[in-house]
Amino acid sequence: MLQRQLDEEHDREIHMIEKARNRNNKIAISYDQFKISPGRFDSSSDSSEEEAEENWGNYLRAEKARTIPATRRGYVNNSEGMKVTKHDAELAGRRNVSRMENFGPTFKSGDGSGMDLKLSNKVYKVLKTHSYKQENRAARLHEKKDNSTAENAMDAKTSLMLMKFVNQGLLDSVGGCVSTGKEANIYHAFGGEGNERISDIPEEVALKIHKSTMNEFKTRDQYIADDYRFKKHYSKQNSRKIVEQWALKEYLNLEKMRRFGVRCPRVVKVKKNVVIMEFVGKEGFPAPTLKEAALSASELQTSFDQAVHCMKDMYRKCKLVHADMSEYNLLWLDSKVFVIDVSQAVDVSHPKSHQFLFRDCKNITSFFRRSMDEKVSDDKIPKDFELFNLITGQKLESGEDMEMLAQIEAFENNQELVMYQLTRVDFPFDYLYDKSALRFAWVPSN
């Protein structure tokens, strides 16, 4: 708007110079090449604004003349002697056009000044309903944009939380995004000096900010609802609460894995949907995944052995199943494998834990078989059911997917029976009968 006013002032000054220079000369010199918008202030457009105002005034006067005055009778006689009421189609059409100009700013009604426009009641009602829906939709989208973390996982609440971390001494500065995923984004940051509660903070930390929308990863409930640690606090109605439980679950899983010696990032703090953990990388550059790293044959074998060792320790010591173990969730740094992204990891007591474990075994073996030569992989990389047997100590047999699934379900049922036998306490029948008889004995009153 300001630029337009400056352009108009410039063109007006050039037009005055041109008019003074030419005066009454028969041959006029044009200064259009010096104007920003030539022809704006020529003789034919000097009174354009006045004409527009006059046309609009004529339109208002004509509309007022066509409007029925408020009388007790409710009608007037026109020039032809006919009675005209407020329900006249022509007057109602003009009245609907004037009302349409009062719609919200999101409704593009156009400029109808100087034109005799009419809208029927039916069309007006449809446009009015559409205008209300458009305003409500714009309000919802604006609220969702302010309160959600769908795209870059950094809404106003998350930004305020990071500022609090800096003030508390947990962070020194926050860098840019180093990785994006379907459920969270990873930001690089430098650790602070710490405070009374948390003093040992790594020099480089990673901020895993979980997205608060469920559009990206809608199957989270099967990993939380059946986990005994979060079953009581699980609510499918509030998506933000689910995300907070998801972040808390990753914090607890990483802490447990670190306690039992599984190589993974060391966690520092969890708050809402943000997890502060050790940065696996150097000088702001994250360590590559096994999918991205260019490994030799010996390094592939070493990484496979370490991945299998991590899976065994998670299952036997931590009593956890990763449930998404693949080449994308294993980092390679200094000839060592680091396990990441354990927010979906479940306890071995989960009803589908062994199905998830078999899927992890299938992902790992298929990746290393593709990466190695066929002759080498057949000798050094076991099959998926063999790796499952190696981790669990079970004796599954080779078969189709449905047959393997049936064997895994039977194994899970046996595991439930074993756990039940270990926790069940048997009491003698006479003891229980005596306790019940003494409790419900009837004593007559004197």
Describe, in plain words, how this protein is organized in 3D:
The protein has helices at 2-22, 48-66, 89-100, 121-147, 156-167, 221-224, 239-259, 297-316, 353-371, 374-380, 384-392, 401-423, 429-439, and strands spanning 75-77, 83-85, 171-180, 184-191, 204-210, 267-271, 274-278, 281-282, 285-286, 320-321, 330-333, 336-339, 346-347. It is α+β, with helices and mostly antiparallel strands and 446 residues long. Strands 3-4-5-7-6 form a 5-stranded antiparallel β-sheet, with helices on both faces. Strand 1 and strand 2 form a beta hairpin. The longest helix is centred in the first third of the chain and has 27 residues, at 121-147. The protein is elongated. The termini are far apart. Residues 417-427 and 437-444 have low confidence and may be disordered.
